[in-house]
Amino acid sequence: MTQATDIPVLDWQRFASGRDADGFAADLGAACRGPGFFLIKGHGIDRNLIKQVFSQATDFFAQPASVKEPLSIYTNPHNRGWAHMGSEALDDQSGVQDRKEAFNIGLDLPRDDPRVQAGEPFRGVNLWPEEADLPHFREVMLAYYNAAWGLGVALHRAFARDLGLAEDWFAPHFTAPMATLRLLSYPPASGTAGEIGAGAHTDYGAVTLLLTDGEPGLQVRPRGSDTWLDVPHMDDTFVVNIGDCLMRWSNDIYASSPHRVAPPRNKRHSVAFFLDPNPDSVITALPGTGDPRYPAVTGADYLRSRLDATYTPPEVS
Asked: Which residue intervals define the domain Fe2OG dioxygenase in the entry (predicted)?
């Protein structure tokens, strides 16, 4: 594979400090119109918190199946919990099952929240390991969830500026988002022909913030290209990519590029934060982007349509 030299590294502090907000937005817009991927440094999220997230994730995936099975993502309809090895096929063309485990955490709501009680879409309670097994797991993950949520919402201020909108245009759509913090674990390649860590796909939401442990594997195919490029790893940076929801919102001005994870040589862990809008947000062409290329759809209906095509139900014996 070819190294992705055209994936830019952007310094978030240019925008956050206000010293070069217009220049940052222009550079951001170029990345969003081109590869749909960029790296962000100067993000402001505490390094120690990030280390704790990776440590807790490693400990979770090391637990026996008897600990993880009660947290199965199949036990609830809200996209929360443990996805076992082989439960997903992100590449719906090939049908090859992904070789990875995952654990999903959503907006943390109590059981007595009116939205949970009413059965609103993607408004369920999170599934958590027993504190005796992983005593600090919940507090670390929720601290990181909130930090990544804040960064993702702030990035939308820069998207808005680039797209000629008021900086706060997106803010009402991310007050209680369907955001998912997803911990991922990929085993080393087995050498079996055709295997894949994560099949070729585009992300479903508005934007994805990804941290990796440095083990190679992530590859992207930019819009208009038939070549897979290795996404570089840089310490203390996020890999950020545009998802299908924001591509639809921007009326295809921004690119949601296919990407995949090749089977790694060594065990690989990554931490993805998928920022989807509020369930009732209506996704339609933004002002000033021309005639809509897609029908209007709510955030919840769009996410459900994508998830239903991804998961393989467990076999019943």
From this structure: 173-277
pLDDT of 5 higher than 60: no
The answer to whether 269 touches 54, Cβ cutoff 8 Å, is yes
Cα gap 158→240, rounded to integer Å: 13
* 155 in a structural domain: yes
Q: Grade residue 77 by pLDDT with cuts at 50, 70 and 90.
A: confident
Asked whether the beta carbons of 214 and 267 are under 8 A apart, the reply is: no
Read off the pLDDT of residues 214-263 as tens digits, 9 standing for 90 and up: 999 999 999 888 899 999 999 999 999 999 999 999 999 999 999 999 99
Using CA atoms, how far apart are residues 296 and 286, in angstroms rounded to an integer? 11
Please indicate, yes or no, if residue 162 is contained in any of the structural domains. Answer: yes
Give the predicted TM-score (pTM) of the model.
0.94
How do residues 283-306 score in pLDDT, each as one tens digit? 999 999 999 999 999 999 999 988
Q: Is 84 a member of any domain?
A: no
* 27-55: average pLDDT: 97
Q: What is the CATH number of the domain that holds 52?
A: 2.60.120.330
Residue with tokens 């960064």, as numbered in its chain: 151
The first and second tokens of residue 6, run together, are: 């055209």
Distance CA 273, CA 145 (A): 8
| Per-position b or e across 177-202, b if 16+ CB within 10 A of its CB | bbbbbbbbbbbebeeeeeebbbbbbb
User: Is 119 among the domain residues?
Assistant: no
Kindly provide the b/e burial profile for residues 102-140, where b requires at least 16 CB atoms within 10 angstroms of the residue's own CB.
bbbbbbebeeeeeeeeeebbbbbbbbbbeeeebeebbeb
Tokens of 91: 């590449």
Q: Which of 150, 148, 160 is nearest to 22 (CA)?
A: 160
Is 146 in a helix, a strand, or coil? helix
